[in-house]
Structures are given as C-alpha cells and as structure tokens.
What we know:
By secondary structure, this protein is an alpha/beta fold. The chain has 15 helices and 12 strands. Strands 7-6-5-8-9-12-11 form a 7-stranded mixed beta sheet, sandwiched between helices. The protein has a 3-stranded antiparallel beta sheet with strand order 2-4-3. It has a two-stranded antiparallel ribbon with strand order 1-10. Strand 11 and strand 12 form a beta hairpin. Helix 1 packs across helix 6 and helix 6 runs parallel beside helix 14. The relative contact order is 0.12. The structure holds S-adenosylmethionine. S-adenosylmethionine (SAM) binds next to helix 8, strand 6 and helix 11.
Amino acid sequence: MQEASDSVLLPADWRGGAKTPLDADTAFNGFISTNVVFALEQLGLFTWFEENGRLDVPDYCRARQLDETVLRRLLSAAETFGYLVLTGDTVAPTPAWDDLRRKIGFFTWGVGGYHDVFANAASITRGERVFGTDVRRDEGMVALGSAQADLALMRHILDEQIAELDFSVLADLGSGISERVSRLVKSRPGARGLGLDISASATRLAAGTVARHGLTDRVQPICADVLDVLFRGRRIEGADGVDVAMSFMFLHDLLVDPRTRRDVIPALRKAFPHAHTFLLGDTTVRPRGEGDTLPVFSTGFELAHALMGVPIYTREEYENLFREGGLHLRRTIPFGAPHTYLFVLEAQ
Ligand SMILES: C[S@@+](CC[C@H](N)C(=O)[O-])C[C@H]1O[C@@H](n2cnc3c(N)ncnc32)[C@H](O)[C@@H]1O
C-alpha cells in the first residue's frame, strides 16, 4: 500500500525570515508596509523597475497623471522600510526590492484580494457578518495575485512535469482566465485544452486570453461549476478525450462539503475517464513546531480560509485522500509558494 510521501524535502525558504514573536513595532509596520508595497505595484513601479534602473518622479507623475505630493509620501515610506532610495527627483530600488518583486503576488492576493475579509475578522467571529453575503473578497485581485505568484515562483516547476507527459487534450479545473491551460497547449503542437471555471467574468476574460494566444480553435473556456460535473450530472463535451486533468489552488474548494469530500477523487476520475495523469497543486497547512520563523503567505492563507469557512488540509491528508480515491501518487513536488505542492498522480 502506498504511504504518504514522508521523504519530500522542504525548501529552506519555506521556514521564512519573519522571527516570532513579532513585536508590536514590526507587526504595525508590517501592516503599513504591505499596503505601501501593494500601492506601488498598482502604480506600476514593479513593472517600471524591471525595465529601468531609475525613476524620475516628476516625469513619472506627468506621464500617468499621478498626484506628485502623495506619490512622494508613498516613496518616502518605502524608503523608510528600506525598499527604495530617493535622491532628489530620482528613485532607485534597493536589494530588498528584488525579494518583494518575487513575492509580489502575495501582496496582491492579501491586500488587494482579502483586505475586507481580514478587516472584518472580529465581526465574522461574532457571527454579525458572514463571508459571501456581507463580506466579500476581490476575485479579480485574487486571480491577479495567483497569476503573479505563478509567473515568479511556480511556472518552471509545472513546465518540467508537463514536458515528461504524453498528452493531446488537457483540462484545467478552476482555470481562472485560462492563462495556464493556454500556455501549456501552445507549447505542445496539436494539443487542445478545456478550461472550466464557475466565474462568468473569469470565463469572459478567458476568451480574451485564448484569442491573445491565437488558440481559439484549440482551447475552449467553459463556464461551469465543477461540482455540477462531479456530482450533479453536468456533461462537458470533450471530457472523454481528456488525457491530463489539472487543477491549481482550487482542490480545497471542491472538498468543502464533508458529505462529498471522500467522493471527489473518484468522481474526478469518472468525469475524465481516459485521463492517465492528474496534476493537482494546492497550498497546505504549514506544519507546526518547526522553528520560530514564518514565511510569506502561509498564515494569511490559513486565516483567510478560516474566515471564509473553507477547510484546508495538510500534505498528508491530501496524499491519503488521493490514495483512498484510487490515484497513485507518482511524486509530490514543492511548488514554489510556501507549503504549496504539486501532486503528480496516475490513474490506476
Ligand atoms: C484561487 S483561484 C485559482 C485560479 C487558477 N487555477 C490559478 O491557479 O491561478 C480559484 C478559481 O476557482 C474558481 N472556482 C471556485 N469554485 C469553483 C467551482 N465550484 N467550479 C469551478 N470553478 C470554481 C474560481 O472562480 C477561481 O477562478
């Protein structure tokens, strides 16, 4: 019997560099600095510094119709935090900027996507407000943050795994704007893809993604609730031909209902009966008792899902679920973001 894979080596940076207990000064400045970093990303500074070593404040403000006084205050705050150096009208990034750039997706995800959820933690705890009706996340920012994290931290890992697989039709479940499925299909001559997402707006954006990649005859975005496909008899044309089924940062959404949790993997296999490989990526619960430092993202991911009432799982729980569902775990691969894994699974 296959056991959970104990042998996975955790990347050293998953331990993180934030030393606990976070004293009050660090905690408060952390709150302000995440907002400053997110604002600078929204104002285009990360893109700018990828192509230019320096930024001229008056020119930058003129070209984008920004309030120069306010931008200077934001830049000055960023300088205080050690991210930028201001010399007169000129701004340059410090070495710390590079680490922010790699991890910017988590700032977009946390500040852009979940600010209202975190700000309402007390009222959700009291039962005065409920996620989904009184409190919402910004889906667009969550999708953008995921895409930024994918680009900086995850893409190359998936590409290595995909390169080893024989496939002609891919299905991506919870595919967002279908960027990933389009990219993978494009890299494999003659391949085709399906991207299923519950969000009508994401599916509309996906049509644009597919057109931009020149793949309208090869990738089909479909607006569908995957739970309808798994449990309520919704048929997806072409599902029979899928040979690799994937999902990223989405599996936990399928497992919310405890009554159907154990049926999800068997139902997935049934929905894609000829899929020989399942590539399932998701973030897991950070193991406790492993030192006194924290990485980016993990605590935010855990708390956000608690506030939304969505359970999340350990690596071992996922691996057991796959085994019980009849999938053979070929390998578990650390997938860039802290405590996030790509599970490569074979249908038996
Ligand atoms: C965290 S995002 C991940 C998006 C993309 N896979 C990525 O990694 O960037 C989760 C996606 O799942 C979609 N989703 C949530 N519940 C769904 C369901 N029941 N059926 C289909 N899609 C769903 C959301 O609309 C969203 O696009």
